[in-house]
Design a protein that fits this description.
The chain is an alpha/beta fold. It folds into two domains: about 120 residues, Aspartate Aminotransferase, domain 1 (Alpha-Beta Complex); about 250 residues, Aspartate Aminotransferase, domain 2. The protein is built from twelve helices and 13 strands. The chain has a seven-stranded mixed sheet, sandwiched between helices. Helix 7 links the parallel strand 6 and strand 7. Bound molecules: pyridoxal-5'-phosphate (PLP). Pyridoxal-5'-phosphate binds next to helix 3.
Length: about 375
């Protein structure tokens, strides 16, 4: 099997991740009183926050709260800020985990939503965002890296624009976390949502939200924390205010091991490998008259190769790759329906091949050969 669907969920995971999760079956995942909210060097939850803080350049690790993934983190950010009566700006490259929460609030009459256009590669110009901000805009939400084309936005520039207009910047880092550099401190990010099971190499069901010092959110859920049980309301402070319920410790353990793997290997080295594979994809398929490529050459995570075989719907290509070549990609809209008109791919969407640090050059050549063979079929149509 050749797995090229890492933008959905990464496979395989580093051996270290598997070993850490398997080892967790050999000891109880509870303490006499619940920990994980404090700076306890022995505690895996704290250690995981520390590693994430290293990766995202966050000063205080306790400002990273765990969630079940980006979807929950984005819901917490969007519903936790008091946005009622305001305008919210999003971009055309957003995932449904942003589109649906804001559209729901809009339907309830609580906010208005402005959508900023993208170019034909899924890039959103900071100047376009600037033009869309109104006097009553309280939050701007951007996808750092398109899960469709891989286009990467200039967060530093966008943050400056957003803050100069007095709004919050919420970042969806689902695709960029563990793939490319993120610098919460120097870029001055307010809220950053990430998921553990993609480039961070963790299990599904773990992720988190970085909340900048000074920002307070209404929690999505309240309940048991294992400590401070005498308090009848959700205890204040980070991360406890946002982490009611038994934590997903197997997920946290996997995330810790995944982030540790990235830090030990080096983000640059991981990116270099993906860049080399990305180059091969372009060298082999660009200029082929039967193939249309939507991913950009530059300003990209070098992880997503988004294309179509002309005269074929993406599903057909995916089916042929799977059934005849044992190659697994993702086809369709990729939960990002607002992008379709900008890429010119309505209503069927695209094929997305997403490689990882563990994908080999040989696998990429097998994939490009398979695509060329499938493209030949169109000659007979
Ligand atoms: C850009 C983007 N945002 C949000 C999500 C949602 O992540 P999760 O399903 O892990 O919560 C994804 C996952 O596909 C994504 O690619």
């Amino acid at each position: 099997m050749i797995y090229l669907n890492n933008a959905a969920t990464s496979f395989p995971k580093p051996k270290e991740v598997k070993d850490a999760v398997v080892a967790s079956f050999d000891y109880p995942l509870v303490h006499s009183s619940r920990t994980g909210f404090e700076r306890e060097e022995e505690d895996i939850a704290y250690l995981c926050r520390v590693r994430l803080a290293d990766l995202f350049n966050v000063e205080d690790p306790l400002r990273i709260v765990f969630t079940s993934g980006s979807t929950e983190a984005l819901n917490l950010a969007i519903k936790g800020l008091s946005l009622d009566g305001s305008n919210v700006v999003i971009t055309a490259i957003e995932h449904n985990s942003v589109i649906r929460p804001v559209k729901t609030l809009e339907k309830e009459g609580k906010i208005s939503v402005t959508i900023v256009e993208c170019n034909k590669n899924g890039y959103v110009y900071p100047e376009q965002i600037e033009k869309s901000i109104r006097d009553n805009t309280r939050a701007v939400i951007v996808n750092h890296c398109s899960n469709v084309t891989g286009a990467v936005l200039d967060l530093e520039k966008i943050a400056k624009i957003v803050h100069s207009r007095g709004a919050y910047l919420i970042v969806d880092a689902s695709q960029s976390a563990g793939a490319i550099q993120i610098d919460c401190k120097n870029w001055d990010i307010d809220l950053l949502a990430f998921t553990g099971h993609k480039s961070l190499f963790g299990l599904q069901g773990i992720g988190g939200l970085y909340i900048k010092e000074g920002i307070e959110l209404k929690p999505l859920k309240v309940g048991g924390t294992g400590i401070l049980s005498e308090i009848l309301l959700q205890p204040e402070g980070v991360p406890i205010h946002y982490e009611a319920g038994t934590p997903n410790r197997p997920g946290i353990i996997s995330l810790y091991a995944g982030v540790q793997f990235i830090l030990n290997t080096g983000l640059e080295k991981i990116l270099e490998h993906k860049k080399k594979l990305y180059q091969i994809l372009f060298d082999e398929l660009e200029g082929n008259e039967d193939i249309e490529i939507y991913s950009p050459r530059e300003n990209t995570s070098y992880s997503n190769f988004c294309f179509n075989v002309k005269k074929m719907v993406p599903e057909e290509v995916g089916y042929m790759l799977e059934s005849s070549f044992d190659i697994y990609v993702r086809t369709g809209l990729h939960c990002a329906p607002l992008m379709l008109p900008y890429l010119g791919v309505a209503p069927w969407g695209t094929v997305r091949a997403s490689h990882s640090y563990f994908t080999t050059e040989e696998e990429i050549y097998k994939f490009t050969d398979a695509i060329k063979k499938i493209a030949l079929v169109t000659k007979k149509i």
